[in-house]
Structure formats: C-alpha cells, structure tokens
Amino acid sequence: MKKFSNWALLAVAFGAVAFTSCSKDDDSPAPTPSIYERLGGTTMVADPDNPGQMIEQGRLSYRKVVNTTVGLIVADVQANASGNLGAHFAPILSEVGAGNTTNLAILVDNLTDFFSFNTGGTNAVNTYTGLDMVTAHNPSLNPRMGTTSTNADYTKFVGYVGAAAQQNGVAANTELYTDIVAVLESLRDPIVQ
Ligand code: HEM
Per-residue pLDDT averaged across 138-152, rounded? Predict the structure, then answer.
C-alpha cells in the first residue's frame, strides 16, 4: 500500500509538472514591441527644437535620426562634388545653397512621418501624406528626384541612416538596429528602379 502511494504521489507530481509545462507552452510569447515603441513610443517629452511644445519620444527619435542623416548626406555631397548622391538631390541642394530651407523642412517632416507611421506610430501627427515610394523616387513622376537611384547609392544611403541611428543612441549590435535596417532594406526594390 505504501509502495502504491509512492507511485501515486509520483504520478501526481509528474502530472503537475506536465500540466505546468503544458500551460507554459500555451502561453503565447509577449509580442515584440513596435520599433516606434522601442524608440520611446508615445511618451510625451519637451520638444528641444520648439520651446514650449511637447512631442512623442518615438517621433523625436526619428526626427533626430533624419536630421543627422541629412547632415551626413550633405557632407558626402560636399566631399564628393562629382559623386552621385548630389545628382539625386540636386533640386533641394540648390535651394538650400540659395538659403531657402522651406522644402528641406518639408522633407524632414515627411521622412519623420514616413518612418514613424510605418513602424507603429499611430498619433495623427505621424500620418504620412507624401508620395508612395515608387512615385517619389521616379524622376519622371517626381521632378524633385534628380536621377534614379542605383543599388550602390541605396546602400550608401542606408549606411548613412544606420550611422545616424548609431549617433542617436541605437547601438549597431542590437535587435532594434537590425530591425531598423530590415525595414530600410524592404524599401530597396520600390526605390531602386
Ligand atoms: C530608406 C530609404 C528611403 C526612404 C524611406 C525614402 C523616403 C523618402 C520620402 C518619404 C520622400 C518624400 C516624398 C514626398 O515628399 O512626397 C523622399 C523623397 C526623396 N528621396 Fe527618398 N527615401 C529613401 C531613399 C532614397 C535614396 C537612396 C535616394 C537617392 C539616392 C533618395 C532620394 C530622394 C529624393 C531626391 C527625394 C525628393 C526630395 C525633395 O523633395 O527635394 N531617397 N524619400
């Protein structure tokens, strides 16, 4: 009888373990937060560029990355006067060279919307209303696109966005960085035409 009880106990214990591990298997893993959330999400913070205004941290993170990217592209164009990035951005660069930054500000805003909107930013302020990526990067449909992008130009561009992300605190060896680069790579086909 004593022996039977031991087996019974063992069976109950095994059942408990099996049940526990079974219920563990049924727990679906917590979904990975969106890139927007991981960049700070909807937490409201003071907008460093607009005193007295607040901004979502996720949008602010993207705006910083976009602004740094613009700086890296301008530096590239200046260092390689005959290089290829300058040819694509010829219209906007000539405006900025003449002291007119209106369209640059619109582009920064559109790019910030585009990235925020497509990676989990749901606030209406993030809604992207610009051209789709095929139209925006086809010079015959968008006169602001100087020439079509080659694969090499695209790789260079993505490298600058990656460098800008790193300069704004996204370390290169993190899952977040890899996820951002994957989003950029997913746009290569529509943009390189
Ligand atoms: C991750 C890759 C890229 C993304 C997400 C992106 C996104 C955008 C967006 C959202 C716009 C604004 C469209 C509008 O105003 O309606 C734009 C415009 C433009 N893009 Fe891209 N782009 C990318 C790569 C490139 C590359 C590789 C080039 C050239 C080498 C390029 C050249 C341009 C130019 C010249 C414009 C027009 C700028 C202006 O308004 O003066 N883009 N892009």
Answer: 95
Ligand 1 binding pocket mutation candidate from 104, 137, 142, 148 (most atoms within 8 A of CB):
137
pLDDT of residue 38: 98
Amino acid at 21: S
Reading phi first (left if > 0) and then psi (alpha if -120 to 50, else beta), residue 31 is in: beta
Position in ligand 1 atom list of the atom nearest CA 113: 10
39 pocket-lining for ligand 1 (C-beta < 6 Å): no
**Residue 56 host element (H or E):** strand 54-56
Mean pLDDT, residues 117-134 taken together: 97
What CA–CA distance (Å, rounded) separates 9 from 3?
Answer: 10
For 15, residues 6+ apart whose C-beta sits below 8 A from its C-beta are none
